[in-house]
Structures are given as structure tokens and as C-alpha cells.
Automatic annotation (TrEMBL):
Domain GFO/IDH/MocA-like oxidoreductase: 153-244
InterPro entries: Gfo/Idh/MocA-like_OxRdtase_N, Gfo/Idh/MocA_Oxidoreductase, GFO_IDH_MocA-like_dom, NAD(P)-bd_dom_sf
Domain Gfo/Idh/MocA-like oxidoreductase N-terminal: start-end pairs: 4-120
Protein name according to UniProt: Gfo/Idh/MocA family oxidoreductase
Top-level taxonomic group: Bacteria
PANTHER family tied to this protein: D-GLUCOSIDE 3-DEHYDROGENASE, UDP-N-ACETYL-2-AMINO-2-DEOXY-D-GLUCURONATE OXIDASE
Length: 325
């Protein structure tokens, strides 16, 4: 194919940023958009030179796209991946890829059996600093992990409802969970405690927590915690720290720090990781090389399983073991 023709289902802020980076990729062309918000769809279509479609099926059947970006909230995912896979249309599914694990596993099997290229929204894997950390940690024994996702609350009503967003760990801190998996290995168990400390003063209808602590064990034997809150107006953090007996590694936003017996280095990336993620996906579609994608749908499913298990743990007030895949 000369250019990879791309359609978008859901054209909110995340989709718009993807579109802006795709404009910088010579082998990509944005050709179609579809959204329940018709005015927003028209706005994005005019801005990026695409055509609007009334329904997903109409867009998929028009013969104008090779790949589909799914940028809807996690509660609006029914039938989308399956419809694209059935037509041989490649997929990038933004995170989180769903809220029901059985449904996500069913979709995963369909996607894998279809043979299409598939990617997910775990963009931090593409950072050069994350790749440097991965290389450094490859032969190290990680003994403790501390992760943080601290900040404010997205200003959308659906985010404040557990049955629509899954809460902060599923919808935001999932990036930190994914980095732990990518850099230190798979989760063995989680134990979570959640609380509503401030949120219902402003949003009485809210069912999500605004403070959460997750303790976990990895299959390697390492232990760790993830601290996340959406009530912090004055401080934001998105860090993951790895401790061994003779080293320390921190991935804090765009900055990597490595300390050991011979060095104490700090590197700050200037990379646009969304651009690199989209460049890899477009190249994978054009070449048919799935291995160019660093975080496929199956990887996203494993990360989702950890975060949903934490939700289950908080509700049941007990440890949840993560099944081996």
C-alpha cells in the first residue's frame, strides 16, 4: 500500500492528538472519522481532511480505511474490535480496552485469529528513556517497586462512575502498571484499599474512589506499591521507581535516573512518544510486521487484568492472585 489510510472511531482530545502526530508521518493518511457527537466529527474531519460517517459499520464498509483507531471511553467498546477484525482492518485500541475481562479475552482471541496488526495505547513503552531503563534492568534483580499517579480529576462526568471508567487505576494509573510489567515482570498478586476522601463534596453522584493504595507482588518475588489519587490540585507525579541491592532506577515522566556503584546519571527525553507509537503502528501495518508494535492488544489485556483485579481486591478486601497467561 502507498499510504496507510486511517479512520477514527471517537474523536475527542486523545484522538485529536493522534491525528496531529499522524500528520507528521509520510506513510499515513487520515481518511475517515465517526463520533456520536456529529458537530465534533465534522470539526475534526474539516481540520484533517477526512470524511465523516454516521455509523461505525458505514465507515468500515466504505473501503476507505486500512486501519482503525478506537478512541472511545472504555464503556463504549461493544462490537468495535470484532467488526474491524472481521473486515481485515488493523487496530489501535486506546487504553483501557474494556471493563469486563471475559469480554476483552474474547475480543483478543478474535483479533489474534484474524491476523490483523494490533496495537494499544501504552505509549510510554516507546520512550527512549524507557528503552534505556529496560536494557539496564534486563540482568538486574528488582527487589522493590514504588509507583505513583498523583494529580487532578478529568472534567468528564463518565470518569467519576466506576462502571464507566473503572476508576483511576484502570483509566490513568494503568500506564504505571504497564511500566512495572514492561520493566520488572509480571504481577503475581494485588491487595488494594480505596477511599472517597473529597470527591463527593463536589460530585455526590461519584462512585469512583479518589485515594487508592495497591500493594503487590511480582512473580519474580519483588514487592511494591502503587499510590494514586485524583484529588491533588497542586502536585502531579507519574513515577515508577525500581530498587535493587546495588542500584536504583527511576522513570519519572520524561526523565530517567540510574544510580549504582559506578554512576549517577539523569537523562531527559525530548521524544514525542505518541509520534513514535503511531510511527511504529503505521510501519507495522505497511510492512505486515507485528513485532514493530511494543504494546499490542494482548499486552493491554494483561495490564487491564491487573487493574481490574485491584478493583476486585478493594471491594472484597482480600488478596487477588493474577492468573498466569
Amino acid at each position: 500500500m502507498e499510504k496507510v489510510r486511517i479512520g477514527f472511531f471517537g474523536v475527542g482530545g486523545m484522538a485529536e492528538y493522534h491525528m496531529k502526530t499522524l500528520q507528521q508521518i509520510e506513510d499515513a493518511a487520515i481518511t475517515a472519522v465517526c463520533d456520536l457527537n456529529k458537530a465534533r466529527a465534522s470539526e475534526m474531519a474539516n481540520q484533517f481532511g477526512a470524511k465523516t460517517y454516521e455509523t461505525l459499520e458505514e465507515m468500515l464498509d466504505a473501503g476507505v480505511i486500512d486501519a482503525l483507531y478506537i478512541c472511545t471511553p472504555p464503556f463504549v467498546r461493544e462490537g468495535i474490535e470484532e467488526a474491524a477484525a472481521a473486515r481485515g482492518i488493523h487496530l489501535l485500541s486506546e487504553k483501557p480496552i474494556g471493563l469486563q475481562m471475559a469480554e476483552v479475552r474474547r475480543k483478543e482471541q478474535i483479533i489474534r485469529e484474524s491476523g490483523i496488526i494490533h496495537s494499544s495505547g501504552y505509549c510510554l513503552r516507546y520512550l527512549d528513556t524507557v528503552q534505556q531503563a529496560k536494557q539496564y534492568l534486563a540482568d538486574k534483580q528488582v527487589d522493590m517497586v514504588l509507583a505513583y499517579r498523583i494529580g487532578g480529576m478529568p472534567d468528564v462526568g463518565w470518569w467519576r462512575l466506576m462502571d464507566r471508567s473503572g476508576g483511576q487505576l484502570v483509566e490513568q494509573s494503568t500506564h504505571q502498571v504497564d511500566l512495572v510489567r514492561y520493566l520488572a515482570g509480571e504481577f503475581d498478586f494485588v491487595e488494594a484499599n480505596y477511599a472517597q476522601r473529597h470527591i463527593q463534596r463536589n460530585y455526590p453522584e461519584a462512585t469512583v474512589y479518589d485515594v487508592g493504595i495497591v500493594s503487590f507482588g511480582l512473580r519474580s518475588g519483588a514487592l511494591g506499591t502503587i499510590s494514586n489519587t485524583s484529588l491533588s490540585r497542586h502536585l502531579g507525579r507519574g513515577d515508577v521507581e525500581f530498587f535493587g541491592h546495588d542500584f536504583y532506577v527511576s522513570v519519572s515522566g520524561m526523565t530517567l535516573r540510574i544510580v549504582d556503584d559506578t554512576q549517577d546519571i539523569t537523562v531527559t527525553s525530548e521524544m514525542d512518544f505518541y509520534l513514535e507509537q503511531n510511527r511504529a503502528f503505521v510501519a507495522a501495518v505497511k510492512s505486515g510486521r507485528q513485532e514493530l508494535v511494543l504494546g499490542d492488544y494482548s499486552e493491554a489485556a494483561v495490564t487491564l487484568e491487573v487493574t481490574l483485579a485491584a478493583n476486585e481486591s478493594a471491594e472484597a478486601q482480600r488478596r487477588i492472585v493474577i492468573p498466569a497467561v
